[in-house]
Amino acid sequence: MLGWEDRAIGWLLDHCPPDYRRYAGWRKNPVALAWLAQRHLAGQVAVMRQAYREARVELGDVVSPEALAEILTALEAEGLRLVAAQRSAALVHEAMRGREFIPRL
Prior knowledge:
single chain, 4 helices, mainly alpha
């Protein structure tokens, strides 16, 4: 295993449910872990988008307008973080499958 793969495995596990660390198979099969992490992150992105769409209707009557604005800002920020993580997981998956990347200026 290459040196970067060990760090990538840790990073991928950080983006999956904590219980995934209990299963040795994910560490032994990092390509499968990267594949699964992409799907897990895609699910989180979908849920975050749905929460953002529904927040005003579901929470508008139970929180203040200021709180709702804070909630929407937090959902947006988390959604952006998850989209970036999903893209990063896809790149890690491609690299683990042998794709070589050429640095750009």
